[in-house]
Amino acid sequence: MVLDLTMSMAVLALLGALATIAGCLEDLESDVGSQSNPNSQVQLAPQMGFLHRIFNKAISGEPISNGMSAVTGGVVTTVLLNAKFYPLTAIVIGAFIAAVIYGIFATTSYAGRVASQTRFKQPLYMDIMRYTTPSIIAHNFIVCFCLVSIAYIQYAVLGYPFTIPFLALIWGISVGAIGSSVGDVHYGGEREFQNREFGCGLNTALSGRIVRRAESGLRNSIDNVWFCAKFGGPATGIGLGLTVFFSSWPTTIWGYTWKAMIVGVIILAVMTIMNRLVEINVKNAYGPYKEDKEEKEAVSVAHTH
Amino acid sequence: MSDLKEIPPNTLAMFGISGGLLGIYLSPLFPTAGALGAICAVIWSAEAVRRVAKYGLGTGVPSIGQIAMGMGIIAAMFGLAIVKSMPLAGPILALVTASIIGFIIGWFAQNVIKMKIPVMIRCMTEIAAGGALIIIGFSAAVAGNFDFMGSIIPKVFDNGVMLAVFWVGAMAMLHPFNACLGPDERQKRLLYLAGSTGAITMAIMGIAATMTLGASGAATLILGIILWLIFYKKFWDEVYNDAASVIGTGLIPKTEA
Fold it and tell me: Does A293 reach chain B within 8 Å, measured CB to CB?
């Protein structure tokens, strides 16, 4: 389908918006279950004597698990489109089935991982299982809906020569990779170790000594997603949204020409300079890692808790 | 744990290879058999992943599953495509090719990268062969038979279902050990979980097969859901047996920390 400039900009804006929502919700979904990087500390905690009430969703890394959910949604949507369903209905049903399957994988990983920690006396809390799994399914449903919608728009409106499952899989891997690299920092360093000085780095002796108590009562995964929704999730959403927008914007305006290529290179150069400036600022503010007295005391206090 | 009786690797390999090949060869008569064969291969290769990943491959478990499917899909396509005059030899040729690729990659990991894992070569061979059987089995369940040019390309590759076979098949193989990782991991629980993940994959293939095959796809879907219910229940029984305690809610028990 050939679109005029206004329509193609509208489609691009829609893709960017869908990608922003998908990126944000993907990061929050991984935080509900403590997936990916922060997972290692949740997994390690019982071994260090720190039993907890946090969900342990070990469905491999985020790119692989989100790829699975997106490709499942893509296949189901293809089947329903083939059976002459309306596109929106097909995408919603596809995303729902994919999210439920994702939730099933989440329950098995929580139950399996906790059952493999018997010698550390980590209990399997069924209330955590009951109210965290629906939250994971709900978050993943929105992610999958957005990704399959992007794949459908690319396939049906923009006329990409690939199938919907293929495009959905690529988007699933991308959203997982960006969620893992942008958003996890906010959960890992800032939430699990919020009783340490910000930017202090993680001493090996502190491994597994995660914060387990909340403002009121014991901390659980819903408390974590509440925290991450303030910054980590939106930052990931902007990350993926901008990636989608800036990678397609030059070719939308100037077509597949050298001019568009040059604009792309300029965008890349500006981004690189901005990244470097942020990095220099962070290094000046926090400096190299050094162990101070307070931290040693914190370790000994943690031992006596 | 050594005090518990485990099913020996050779028995599981026999179960995976014979079950997988039988299912694939029955698939032209009854496409659901292809998916059942693939579940046998999933159970076998998930246990092979367990044996090799027990040597401290924490984050490496998903990578093992992906490399297994990578080796498997190359061997499956090669094996099925090269036998033009005798299509019946295809699955066996794919199995042999996958084993050779797995053996070479395992040999490299052991002797060139020097990973020093004693079971590396054997397990890489097993998971590559298992990966090939999983790919062919689930593809045959969607395509109706294992004729590469006539059925698998138009019914599995062209509509993108192959990506689900590849990706969800890899998850079915790698998830059981990844989800049960820990010092008190048990083989029995892992095998039930492998059956469960295999059955979920079978149900997804059933949905895809309703598009390509119609009614026999619905049979795959329904049988997949029933098998999943059985294996999932068995997995939970094992969790209730193995876990330190399963409680509705409660405070954190006191420890020294």
Answer: no
